[in-house]
Every structure is written in C-alpha cells, then in structure tokens.
Amino acid sequence: MKTAAVICEYNPFHNGHKYQLEQTRAAGATHIVAVMSGNFTQRGDVAIFDKYARARAALENGADLVLELPTRFSLSAAEGFARGAVQIIEALGCVDILSFGAECGDVAALKEAAGASEYALHTEEFQELMRKGNSFPAALQEAVKAYYTDDVCEVLSSPNNTLAVEYIKALDDIGSMIQPYAVQRSGAAHDSEDEDKGYVSASLIRKKIAAGEDWSELAPMINEPAADIKRLERAILAKLRTMRSAEFENIYDAAQGLGERLYKAVRKAATLEELYFLTKTKRYTLARIRRAVLCAFLDIDKRTLNEPPAYIRILGMNSRGREILGAAQCGLPIDTSLKALMKQSRDAHRQGAAEERFGDVYSLAFEKPRQCGYEFTAKPVILD
Questions:
Q1: 3-state DSSP call for residue 53?
Q2: Which of 176, 185, 249, 334 is deepest in the core (most CB within 10 A)?
Q3: Could you give phi then psi for residue 166, rounded to 5 degrees?
Q4: In angstroms, what CA-CA distances link 112 with 104, 108, 302?
Q5: Residues 221-232 pLDDT 10s
Q6: Do residues 42 and 81 touch, judged by C-beta distance below 8 A?
Q7: CA 4 – CA 208 distance, rounded (Å)
Q8: What is the model's pTM?
Q9: Cα(369)–Cα(113) distance, integer angstroms
C-alpha cells in the first residue's frame, strides 16, 4: 500500500485533474486521498458546485478519499492554503507522497526555489520592495533575482509552481517524511481561456457553465445547480458598508493598507467588480483583494489562520478510501459528521460552527437558495 495525497479545489474537476491522478497512480500510488477546498476557493470566490458534487466527480475519476480543507485555509494566500492542507495530510499518519501539478516537473528545482524563497523573505531587498508598494509575489521574485540564477527565478514566476514551493516549505516546516512528487502540467496555463492547448483551465470551464455553453468534452459532467457569487453581491456590499474602519484591519491578509482601501472603496462601489477596481493597486493582486472581501464578509480574521485544523472531515470515499482510513494513525478526530466532530473539543466546536455558518451563506449563492443546516443534512459520497 502506497498512499498519495493531492491538494485541490476541483472547481470544477476537469480532464487535467484526471490526468494528474492517473500520473500519480502510474508513479506507484495504490491509494489517493484528496484534500479539497469546500465551498469557497483560493481565488476569492464561491465554488461553482458544492463540495459533495465535486467530491463525487473526484471519486468517480481517480481519487479514493476526499477530505475537506477548512474555509479559513481555502481563503488564504498560498502559504496558509498549503500549510492547512499539509497539516491535515500529515495528521492522517499514512500518506507516503504529496503529488501536485506544476509547470516545472523537477522536484529538485522546486526544492531549490523553496529554499531561495525562504531566504529572500528575510532580506533587506524584499523589505524595501514591499515598502515601495510592490505586491508580495512581485517583491519576492525580485528579491530572489538578487541572489539566485535566472532558472530559479523562472520557477517562481508560475502560479502552480508557487503553490508547489509552498507545499514543499510546509512539509519542511513540520519535518514531514512525506515525499513531494511533481506532475508536469499539460495544456492551457492557469486561468487561460485558450481551448487549443489540450487540457483547458478550470477558469474557462466556469465561464462556459455561467454562459450556458457545452463543456461536456472538457470535464466530467456535474448535473447539479451552479453557484454564483453575484447572488451574494448586495449582501457582501451591505456587510462591508456597515463595518467600522478598525474592523477592516483585523481581516486576514488586509495589512499594508489594504483594509483602509477597502473601507474607502466600499463607500463608492455599487458592485463587487467596482469594489475590486477601486481597491486595486500594483501592491495588491486581484486574488488577494477578492479573498479579503470574502474574509470580511464571513468574519474570518487574521487570528484564525494561525490555529491548526481541529478535526478532519470526510466528504466521500470508495473501498480503497476505507482502506486508507484503516491504515491511518490519525492525530485528529476524523468523521463524516460535522455534528459528531463538533463534540470532540472546544476548538472543534468553534471550527465546525464557523463551517456551518459559511455553508448557510454559500447556500444563498444558488438560483434556488437552500435552507440553513445543509452542513448537517448533506450525506457523504460513498461509492463501492
């Protein structure tokens, strides 16, 4: 038994994701566990399909066990996203390799870039670039250039490489014995709208779904209602308009003046797109702004990011998934039931209550809103 883990959003699950799972299996993995974002994603948006529909697509196309990445991590920048997912994987106690897709398929090069990234963060060059108003990714890349060769800098210029580097750093930080394994990406680039390069991006598929276009050849079909953040637009704007200036400073990742800009922008903005536009500068990436807006809306503050996961929630499994659970030496409570998990500790209750609230909000993003309590009534996906 050789168990691999993947960290994912599957928003939605598409043919490129299936390719990664096939390559992971071909590399020797007998069992695959996916740690997947729940109802909110790292780009600062609602997931287009709910987590159980996406878990089913993953289980029907190569994954064996799907676990939920808590919202406070799924709405984090790359470092927090990676750290939360790696902590869950490590807590299982039976994972041998962490497989990830990256533009660079060379783990040695990614490890070198991880070391360069860690070093650059503590240099005066990086601090000076940040003081001058550069975004975090841009400042980091420029600081790396001052000390490392162009090939190392090139690795850090691509979004999936950046996540891969953070996975490697997270494994190193906790002294994990899990080995990283890179599957080189094939097809269109991240967020690309190009349809002529093999596997297309999830971004393009989401646009086709929103436009009512056929996407059946690009991904396994999910015949479920689609969520759209535009249905939450006025609720989000209303919440942010009623927040005091000081409250914006406590939002996760709203440092370096972002909280103040959001406070001022929301007083002029009549739409979310206008809010993003009025807030945007070269210092803040659009993804960071979108995440900060959702964190403000959901009351996710910067203190919660430092709290480790309090439990592991199972979204679905097949027979091999049950074998993973049988082999697990789990360091955290693990269950399919949120209600059962919330009884495990005070921290578990707080995390679960937050997820319940986030789920009730997400339920309003559908054309036909769902009632409250879906987090307790939804059934895990169990396949033979």
A1: helix
A2: 185
A3: -70, -35
A4: 12, 6, 30
A5: 999 999 999 999
A6: yes
A7: 32
A8: 0.93
A9: 45
